[in-house]
């Protein structure tokens, strides 16, 4: 069969995308489209890692950077986690296997809202807690998407959290 992306070359590999709604998408790709897919995935991972790790900055140090702890290194390309944090460039597709625990840690630590507000009127308070619940659910989904290596979906969910946070700002 032909590649479902370019429709020109013979498909040689099957790629699965699991979406946050649980639906599974399968595409058959040729080698060059599969490589492109892999590249996009690394980029999505880089972008996601950057946003989560930058949210943590000034807050908490991600495990791996603390002195005395064993340095995390990607077995395939030799990139270490500190360098990855600084440059925010994964060296190869195995890097996210090596570092995703750290990204997951970062994602877990990212708080949905800012400091708790006090002195809200009841209606606003209800809205606030609903939003917090929603953000909590989104965070859980993000973790799942990272585990499934669906970084694009994780980034989309992260943007949803950001827009919820934006609404919090408007209410003030
Ligand atoms: Zn193709
Ligand atoms: Zn690597």
UniProtKB/TrEMBL annotation:
Where does the sequence pass through the membrane?
A: none
User: A Pfam family in this protein?
Assistant: UVR
Among Gene3D superfamilies, the record links this protein to:
UVR domain
Q: UVR domain: from which residue to which, for each copy?
A: 132-167
State one molecular function term (GO): cadmium ion binding
PROSITE patterns per record = UVR
A single Gene Ontology biological process assigned to it is: stress response to cadmium ion
PANTHER family registered for this protein in UniProt: PROTEIN-ARGININE KINASE ACTIVATOR PROTEIN
Q: What is this protein called?
A: UVR domain-containing protein
- What organism does this protein naturally occur in? Listeria kieliensis
Classification from the root reads:
Bacteria, Bacillati, Bacillota, Bacilli, Bacillales
């Amino acid at each position: 069969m032909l590649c479902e992306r370019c429709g020109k070359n013979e498909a040689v590999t099957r790629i699965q995308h699991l979406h946050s709604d649980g639906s599974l998408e399968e595409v058959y790709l040729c080698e060059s489209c599969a490589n492109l897919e892999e590249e996009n995935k690394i980029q999505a991972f880089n972008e996601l890692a950057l946003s989560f790790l930058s949210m943590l900055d000034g807050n908490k140090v991600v495990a791996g950077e603390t002195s005395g702890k064993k340095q995390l290194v990607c077995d395939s390309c030799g990139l270490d986690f500190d360098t990855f944090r600084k440059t925010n460039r994964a060296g190869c597709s195995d890097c996210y296997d090596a570092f995703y625990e750290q990204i997951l840690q970062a994602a877990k630590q990212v708080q949905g809202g800012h400091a708790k507000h006090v002195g809200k009127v009841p209606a606003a308070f209800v809205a606030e807690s609903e939003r917090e619940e929603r953000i909590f659910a989104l965070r859980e989904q993000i973790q799942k998407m990272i585990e499934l290596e669906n970084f694009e979906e994780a980034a989309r969910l992260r943007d949803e959290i950001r827009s919820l946070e934006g609404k919090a700002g408007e209410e003030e």
